[in-house]
Structures are given as C-alpha cells and as structure tokens.
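Feature request disguised as a bug: please show the residue count (256) next to Prepilin peptidase in the output. Example input:
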Amino acid sequence: MFVESLTAFAIGLLIGSFLNVCIYRIPLKESVFWSRSYCPHCRHTIPFYHNIPLFSYLILRGKCANCKKKISPVYPVVELLSAAATVLIYNHFGVSGAAFFYILLIYSLIVITFIDFQTKLIPNTVLLFLLGSGVIINLLFNVISWTEALLGFIISGSIMYALAVMGKLLFKKESMGMGDVKFSAVAGFFLGWKLTIAALYFGFVFALLFAVFGKLISKSAMERVIPMGPFFSVSFFLFLLWGNHFFEVYVSIING
Ligand SMILES: [Zn+2]
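Example output, currently without the count:
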C-alpha cells in the first residue's frame, strides 16, 4: 500500500506541474502543450533538471536559477495539492473508471480555483473540457447513472442561476458571476444532484464564514467581490470523498 501511495503521490506531483502550466497559461490564451517551461520574469527556458516538481522549488529556495527572482509559492502548493488528491482518490477508488472520473474533476477544481483567485474568471475552455471528458468517461465506465448526473447538472445550474439573479436584484450589482453558474452545473454532473445540493450549501457557508472573518480582519475585505469558485471547489472536494459520511452523521443527529 505504501509503495502504491508513493507512486500515486509522484504521479500527482507530475500532473500538478502540468496544472501549473494550465493555471499560468490559460488566462493568457497561450498553448499548454508544445512549448518549454520558462521563467515568467526573465523568460529564460527552464532546463529539465530545474523543473522537477516540488524538489526544484526547494533546492532553488523558491528563486529562478537565472534571474534569482522569486518563484510564486503557488507552484509547489498546486503540486502538493494535486499529489495529495491523487493519493486520496487512489486509496478511495483504486485504479478504476470512477477514479479517472473523479480525479479529472479534482484536477479541474484545482485549476479553476487558482485561476478564479487570480483573475476572478472561470475559463469556459476548462469547463467544456471537463464536461466533455466526464461524458466520455461515463459512457465508457458507467460511473454515475445518467439521471443522477443530468439532474445534478440541471438542478445545480438552476439554483445558482436563480441565486445570481436574486443577488443582482438585491445588491444592485453582480454578486455572483455566470462563471460560478456554469461551473456548478458541470460539477453537478460529476457529483449527482444529492451531493451537489449539499456541497453548494456548504460552499455558501464557507464563503459566508470567510466574509465574516475577513470583515473582522479588514473592513475593505467585504467591499471586494468574493470569488465563489474556490469555496465551491473545497466543498465539492470534501463531499466527493466524504459526502456519504456527512449524510449519515446528519441523519443520526436528526434522529437523535
Ligand atoms: Zn528568471
């Protein structure tokens, strides 16, 4: 089990370094394939021995080997998140169609979360890629019933759309973007409608807690628009892995 988990971790690190390329290049509309990694400051091509996930960052102490400028800590964080998620999914689903289905969702959640944090936008290309791959994997492996998945897509998208419209009427400005609506619909497809509703609810709770604590720390935090994508991502991830346990606990509390 240890060797397998270690392998999953290493694969997750490698994929994480590709996710970094996506996070950095998709908002710039650059190709994520067919071009070598380069330093964003001096545009110096990074040789392969300085491009080993996580370890290169540690060895170079977070600085570019050429211009010595700081490398964003986002890179090792994304690599670690991706590695940890790969290990969790592997231990949960083994090597199976379901594992492919869900790890694809999680990698996309990581990319969406970081792009949303940095640009406040959720790119359509990532959503389309995710939905398309989800449909294909489900056709091949029957991971989730089509009724569950389609209801998840429709219900999740409609709830978020209604909230976006209501938010606009109430606050007289955009409180939630259409990106969040589309993103929730696609995630709803992967999770099925029951887990989606629960995950959306907790996503809002997380965002609310963050807003309250943010206000305690700095007054201006509340005036900024809070990107909802990262909160939904965290919530979707927790519900994907442990959602059924949450339900059991909830039901047992209700029943006393
Ligand atoms: Zn550099």
